[in-house]
Amino acid sequence: MNPLAGIAHMLGHPFVRYAFVAGSAVAVAAGLAGYFLVLRSQVFTADALSHVAVAGAMAALAFGVDARLGLFVATVAVALGMGLLGPRGRPDDVVIGSVFAWILGLGVLFLTLYTRSRSTSNSTAGVTVLFGSVFGLSRSHALAAAGISAATVGLLLLIARPLLFATIDEEVARSRGLPVTALGLGFLALAGVTAAEATQVVGALLLLGLVAAPAGAAQRLTTRPFRAMWLSAVLALGAMWAGLALSYAAPKLPPSFAVIAIAAGFYLLAALGAELRPQRER
Amino acid sequence: MIPAHWAAQGPGVGLNWNLVQDLRQLFEFHFMVNAFRAGTVVAVAAGLLGWFMVLRAQSFAGHTLAVAGFPGAAGATLVGLNPAWGFFAFCGAGAAIIAAVPRARAGTQGAGFSEESAAIGTVQAVALALGFLFVSLYHGFLNGINALLFGTFLGITDAQVGVLVAVAAVIVLALAIGGRQLLFASVDPDVAEARGVPVVALGVAFLLLLGFAAAEASQITGSLLVFALLVIPAATAQRLTARPAASIALSVVIAVAVTWLGLAAAYYSSYPIGFFVTTFGFAAYTLAQIATHRAGGRQA
Question: Looking at the complex, does the CB of residue A182 fall below 8 Å from at least one CB of chain B?
């Protein structure tokens, strides 16, 4: 079949269009935020945020409010809290681990409350939060996700240069008068917003792949900071598009699985490529 | 998670002021006896290995290994195998993959690109995605997903307890032989290497053991809540004492206590065990933080 006609046919469905609109914006935000998370060794923080997102969404469902409200409040509050707890805006592993294990436990409690208070047919709501349902987004949800993600991208680009400086050489940046702590906190808040958005697209448990894999691949392909940052966003976007298309073509594959598998594939290829020609780099 | 059959269990279960009777009630059913056996074994293994994991700052790797059990169990169910095999196979494979990634040196944390965290994060997301794929390929299993992720203590068979005991025995034996060297290699890798300790090999072996311990624990607490048994008891113990032997013992004691309390609470209430285990663990951690804060850093 003519591939262009196939794409046109695919985009003829409104639900696919909504998925692409929301997915693209979220992917770019996740790719950019992921680059800094990897650079700042804060991938584990993103892991914690993803679990907090579960608890937030479940709590919102249990109390009967919009799940998105719970998502945003939980991820941003915990991101800021971790930033304040840890030394100089970088919490250590044990604190993160202990806190998020407990918060996830709370999430389980809320899930139980929710499934018990409603009819049993709602038992898949938990699965939706955990693994996403991008093809189930309504028009207004998709537009909201795209708008908020676009704003996140704008803010990230705005602080990209000072944040990079503060990340690579904290002491020098501080002595030059950069607000290093505030930058770290602001970045964590943006990462929290990104996590909440990504939860709606690939699910809370899989957003880590969208954050870590493209950034890791980009770091392998180039050592120049800004090029790597953009490359990370482009790779995340590519994985999103290819994953959505693949899942559309093969409905047995859940979209979130396809997206993560392709993103991980990029990383694997980049790592293998870098191994094969070790001299010419850097 | 803990479904309607709780109500069907009838008036026999209920907490009252007679503690002896409460305890007898707790062990009235064979499934509950098995739950306590399995929980104890799992807690000992997790408390031991979790202590080294926290010492080596490999919490992220440990969490990822725990999560790897989810696709293992889901895949095994899909092809009709015993989920326990899936748990151990995938956790072992995950450990092998993570071991192949170069470790970030402790001193350079945060000072630049860390391949390790990006790679581990990717492994974790792929594991979860695979698990989701298996679950969605296996229709009708969707309700079991919560048990896999968040744990259950119902229906643990005698054979399962046997497997758990055997694996835990291997873990304890391995630590009894190599624990001292592992401690040395974890605290000061450079000096240990100079003294001829096989630091790299120990690291790989440790990850494999950690994978097995995570596989054990995830059969009780679920893949997502393994941290409650791996990190929290160890972090609490290390907070309370700096002496390795005492700290390790304390870690095991806390893990076992948290598991027992969690099982009992889940039995008498209608809420999931994952919630209770994490809450009791976190309470212990918070108390330890406050206590050492009060002591004014005398321990340090």
Answer: no
